[in-house]
Write a structure and sequence with these properties.
Elements: E1 3-7, E2 18-20, E3 26-27, E4 30-31, E5 37-39, E6 45-49, H1 64-73, E7 78-87, E8 97-105, H2 131-144, E9 149-156, H3 165-174, E10 178-180, H4 186-192, E11 197-206, H5 217-244
Parallel strand pairs: 1-6, 1-7, 7-11, 8-9, 9-10
Antiparallel strand pairs: 2-5, 3-4, 5-6, 7-10, 8-11
This protein binds hypoxanthine (HPA).
Hypoxanthine binds next to strand 7, strand 10 and strand 11.
């Protein structure tokens, strides 16, 4: 059983105790964000930093197709994605974890499919996240004593700018509970490849118009640092549970 973690903001910490598993990140779809690394601390799970190892890629610049293709080529069985998000729902505060069950896609112009003239794909996406993995995350959170807000709706915006307050109001009316910039097309590309995919969102700021003032990107770092031990505990339990399923 090979588990891949796709992280960026919030999960870089794993990177320290890991070794690259390939010489190159090149794929038929161009270069992946980074060479996946095997984490000894997490029983051999692979880690891919979607923003690149030097965090140089903005959300709309990420080569999502290359990232998913590479993980699939490496024989990955399960993908867990970690996202930093803004909180839209009134009850959410910085440092909360939200388990997304649904997605609304507001992105545009991204390379968002493996379908082409020779591969006519119409992937079913009714449930964008794998239910078994979702349930495993709920279980892992209980074991790790980490609170999770279930049944999140992840609104994926194009970025790199943050949203206007009116856009967030509209997203709330649409049913979004959190907002991020990297969930799509990542989730659907995993689906097209048949890779079971689940996600965990870390709320790093109140979404536009939901907090006291402007959104300070600098403040997100402190939230990530505070949440990082809980996140690592959760991920470690998740990896253990998935391994036990074999
Ligand atoms: N909006 C979009 N993406 C984000 C946010 C946000 O407020 N916070 C972290 N990623």
């Amino acid at each position: 059983m090979t588990i891949a973690l796709i992280g960026g903001t919030g999960l870089e910490a794993l990177d320290g105790e890991s070794v690259p598993v390939l010489d190159s990140a090149q794929t038929p779809y161009g270069r992946a964000s980074a060479i996946p690394r095997r984490s000894e601390a997490l029983s051999g799970a692979l880690f891919l930093n979607r923003h690149a190892d030097d965090h140089s890629l903005l959300p709309h610049e990420i080569n999502y197709r290359a990232n998913l293709w590479l993980l699939n080529e490496l024989g990955v069985d399960v993908v867990l994605a970690v996202f930093a998000v803004g909180g839209i729902s009134r009850g959410l505060v910085n440092g909360d974890f939200v388990l997304p069950a649904q997605i609304i896609d507001y992105t545009w112009g991204r390379e968002h499919t493996f379908a082409d003239a020779t591969r006519l794909l119409h992937a079913d996406f009714t449930e964008p996240f794998d239910r078994d993995l979702y349930d495993t995350l709920v279980h892992a959170a209980l074991l790790a004593d980490v609170d999770l807000f279930p049944e999140g709706v992840y609104g994926c915006t194009q970025g790199p700018r943050l949203e206007t307050a009116a856009e967030i109001d509209r997203m709330e009316r649409d049913g979004c509970t959190v907002v991020g910039m990297t969930g799509m097309p990542e989730a659907v590309l995993a689906r097209e490849l048949g890779l079971p995919y689940a996600g965990v969102c870390l709320v790093v700021n109140p979404a536009a118009g939901r907090g006291p003032g402007m959104i300070e990107v600098a403040g997100m770092r402190a939230v990530v640092d505070e949440a990082s031990p809980r996140l690592l505990r959760l991920v470690a339990r998740f990896v253990e549970l998935v391994e036990q399923r074999e």
